Amino acid sequence: xxxxDLADLIFPDAKDISxxxxxxxxxxxxxxxxxxxxxxxxxxxxxxxxxxxxxxxxEMTEKTGGVFFLRVEDTDQKREVENGVTxxxxxxxxxxxxxxxxxxxxxxxxxxxxxxxxxLRKEIYQSYAKYMLEQGKAYPCFCTTEELEETRKxxxxxxxxxxxxxxxxKCRNLSVEEAAEKIKNGxxxxxxxxxxxxxxxxxxxxxxxxxxxxxxxxxQDIVIIKADGLPTYHFAHAVDDHLMRTTLxxxxxxWLSSVPLHLQLFQELGFKAPxxxxxxxIMKNDxxxxxxxxxxxxxxxxxxxxxxxxxxxxxxxxYLLNIANSTFENWRRANPDKSLDEFDFQLNKxxxxxxxxxxxxxxxxxxxxxxxxxxxxxxxxxxxxxxxxDEELEKILxxxxxxxxxxxIERGNKKPRKDISKWSDVKYNIEYMYDNIFFNKDMExxxxxxxxxxDINKILKxxxxxxxxxxxxxxxxxxxxxxxxxELGYAKEVKEYKANPDAYKAxxxxxxxxxxxxxxxxxxxxxxxxxxQVIGKDSVTKRLEKAMR
Length: 549
Ligand code: GLU
Known about the structure:
CATH class of the domain at 3-14 and 122-279: Alpha Beta
CATH topology of the domain at 3-14 and 122-279: Rossmann fold
Helix content: 40-55%
Bound molecules: glutamic acid
Structural class: alpha/beta
CATH architecture of the domain at 3-14 and 122-279: 3-Layer(aba) Sandwich
Strand content: 5-15%
Strand order of the largest sheet: 1-2-3-4
C-alpha cells in the first residue's frame, strides 16, 4: 500500500486537480493589474475595519485595472447567521464598493472563478487535500480531543511550544497501512498538513504594508480538512486564492503571523504565492488607552451604524482614506473639489501601526461633504434617510419646494453653511423653519446680552412697526437694524461700542441676536436675512409677536 492508495481510500471520488487548474485559468489581465478580494465570514456583522480593508482592495484593483471580488468564508458553520451574506452585500453596496465578481445576493453570484462561497467548494478542497495525501504531504490524524488536550498539558508543564509538531505529532509517523486500518475500523479522523518546516530556521517576508519581516519557519502540522469535511481557513485561503488567481491578499494583520504557514502551503501545493498587505486595525482612544474598536463595546464598530446615523457615504470613505494614507490630507487641501476617485491611493503609505478612529474628525468631514452638495442633493439624501429612519422628518420634507428653499439658505456660495454633519442632524437643523412646528412648541428663548423682557419687547415692537420691510435687499435690511439699534440707544457699530462701552447698553450685534432668538428660538442659525426671506412676512411678524408675549 502507498500514499496513493491511502488517498483513494479517503477521497475515492475526488477529481484530479488538473480539472480545476484548467477550469480556472490564469486571468488575462494587463501587466500590473491587481486581483484582490474581500473575504469575510457571514456572521451578519460587517466591522468598520472590514469595510476599510474592502475599500483598500477596491482602490488597488480599480487603479490597476484589475479585479475585486467578494468571497464568503463560511467554513465555520457554527458562527453563521441567517442572511449573513445579504448583510455583507448590502453594506458594500451602501458604500459603493462594488465587487466585480463574487456573491451578489444570499445565493447568487457572478464571475467565472466561483463558487465564491466556501461551503460550496467542498469538492475542490478535497481534490487538493487528496493531491497532498498522494504525495505524502498530508496525512490522516486520529487523535481525539482528549489526547490533544493531554499533549497540550504535557507541553505546558515541559514549558515548550504547544501544538501539533515534531515529536508531538503522533499520527505523522503512522504507516500507510496503520492509517488505512484505522479508517477501515471506522475511527474518526481529520487531515493534517505534514509541515516540512523547522522552527530554528528563518524565513523572510516582504509585506506591502508592514515591510520586511522575519519569522521562524512554520513547523506545525495544522489541520487542513476538518471532521465535517470542510477546510480550515489556512487551507481554503491557499486553494481559493490560487484558483481565483488572486495576486494581492489584503487582510487584517491578525493574519500576519500565519504568513510562514501560508507561504509553506503555497509552496507544497506547487502554487505561486500572492503578495500580502496586512492592514493594522482601527483603534480607539478609550480614556487614554489605545485599543481596537470592539464589536461589543463600540456601536461605531458596525458598518450599519453609519447608515443609521445618516453619515454620508462619501464622508465615511473620505475619512477612511484619510486614515489609510498620510498623503490624503494634503491632497484634499490642494484639491478641495475633486472626487475621491481621483486620489492616487498608495499601499506603502499606509500606517504600520493602528490608526486612531476620531469621530469628531469624521463628523467634521461630514459637514464639509454636505456643504458641497446642492440643495437638491441635500434634500434627496435627507429624504431617503428619513424614509428609512425618521417618520417625523419624512413628513417635514413632504413639501419639497419649501424644503429646497430651506436647504438653499447659504448654499452654493463661496462659504456655504456647514451646520449639518449627518442626515440625523437635519431635523434639528431645520425644524424651526416650519411654522406648524415652531408655533406648537413651548418656546424657551435663549436671549444673550440683552435679556430684559421690556428691552426685548421694545426692540421687537419697533422692528415690526417701523423697520421691517420684506422687500429690502440684504444691505438695506441690515442698515435698518442699525437704525433701530441707534434709535433705542444701542451702538450702531460694534467698533463704536468697543471704543466707548460705557456710552451704550449694548451694540447692533446684540440687537440682531434678539431678533434671531425671537425668530428661531436659537442663537446659532444660518443667515437671518435669508431665513426671513424664506419664512415670509406673515411668519416673521407672528413669530416676533409671539416672542413679545
Ligand atoms: N475570513 C477571513 C477573515 O474574515 C478572511 C481573511 C482574508 O482576507 O484572507 O478574517
